[in-house]
Amino acid sequence: MKIVKIGVNFISKAMLPKFYGNFVRGALGWKLGEIFCKQNSVICEKGAECDFVADCVYSSCFKTMFAGDNSSGSVPPPFSIEPMSDNFFTVTLFGSACARCGEYMSALSEINKLGNIEIEVIEVSEIYRRDWNYGTTRGITDIELEFITPTHITIDGKLAEELPFPLFIDNLLSRISHILDIYGEEPFFLEYGIVTRKPYINTKNNLKIVSVKQQGFVKSGVVGKVYFHGELDKYMPYIDLGTQIHVGKLAASGFGVYNLKIF
Fold first, then answer.
1. In angstroms, rounded to a whole number, what is the distance separating the alpha carbons of residues 232 and 37?
2. CA 60 to CA 73: how far, in whole Å?
3. pTM value surpassing 0.70
4. Is residue 127 within a helix (H) or strand (E), and if so which, with residue range?
5. First vs last Cα of the chain: how many Å apart?
6. What are the distances in angstroms from CA 115 to CA 14, 21, 23, 160, 262?
7. Which DSSP letter does residue 238 get?
8. Cα gap 140→235, rounded to integer Å
9. Contact, 124 vs 4, CB < 8 A?
10. 58-111, pLDDT tens digit by residue?
11. What gap in Å lies between CA 193 and CA 105, rounded to an integer?
């Protein structure tokens, strides 16, 4: 699956909340509609009834409720937002959205609804992961995941305060399979051992719950570190891919960003 990463820098000093991914998402969607909607509507109201929905960057690559095959549930947006620091963030595109990179860049370059902060697109890089399904790692037994933005994973309808390995990997594999079913070039499959070996990976959690409250947007998640120990080789390509597409709900709003450290 092809992945394109767009780096965006704040030119003026940013006065934004710590977890500002949802602000970026809202401003990006507004600009995509303002610039590219052929109905001259900033906020999409017609959806599937619009004559231009099939080729609309907003409907196909941002508000994806009318895109793809909805038979398996909601369609995940083919992008994620990663707040890197107070003055730099990235927008990662995957699947069909990579072909709309120019439109994303145009919209990002013209965002002016982040507290009147001026921004600029400073880099675009392409990442090709053609062998991630199989991986080449050997002998990895200890890793650390640092969740740097709130990660929203639920269990029995409630926010998970800890992330034991089976819960983490099930949610990550669910996100990967859902994305590849819609945007991937090849069918997604798992080796039997990946499913059966999950309980044998030990977990040590050092997490805390944080809440994000921004103009009617209220969501909680966990941040901090999780340590996994065990035979991790078969899982590493998926965990590595997760550093690009993130894990849990609201990845398009900057949630579920984690760094990977191998010991």
1. 46
2. 16
3. yes
4. strand 119-128
5. 27
6. 8, 14, 10, 33, 38
7. H
8. 10
9. yes
10. 877 887 755 544 444 577 888 999 988 877 899 999 887 888 899 999 888 887
11. 41
Q: How far apart are CA 90 and CA 4, in angstroms?
A: 10
Answer left, alpha or beta for residue 35, where phi above 0 means left and psi between -120 and 50 means alpha.
alpha
Closest alpha carbon to 10 in 88, 81, 84: 88
- Of the CA atoms within 13 Å of residue 53, those in its CB half-sphere come to 15
**Can you say whether the dihedral through the CA atoms of 64, 68, 72, 78 is positive or negative?**
negative
Residue linked to tokens 């050997």: 138
Answer left, alpha or beta for residue 34, where phi above 0 means left and psi between -120 and 50 means alpha: alpha
* Residues constituting the chain: 263
Question: Are 144 and 263 in contact, with CB atoms under 8 Å apart?
Answer: yes
**Token reading at 140:** 């990895």
Q: Parallel, antiparallel, or unpaired: how do β-strands 258-262 and 2-10 relate? A: unpaired
**12 pLDDT higher than 80:** no
Which structural domains are found in the chain, ordered by start? 2-128 (3.30.70.3400), 142-262 (3.30.70.1900)
Question: Of 17-26, 116-125, 159-168, which gets the smallest average pLDDT?
Answer: 116-125
- Angle, alpha carbons 170-128-109 (nearest 5°): 95
Question: What is d(CA 190, CA 177) in angstroms, rounded to the nearest whole number?
Answer: 10
Q: Which amino acid is at 256?
A: G
Q: Tokens 């035979």 label which residue? A: 231
What is the Cα Rg of the chain in Å? 19
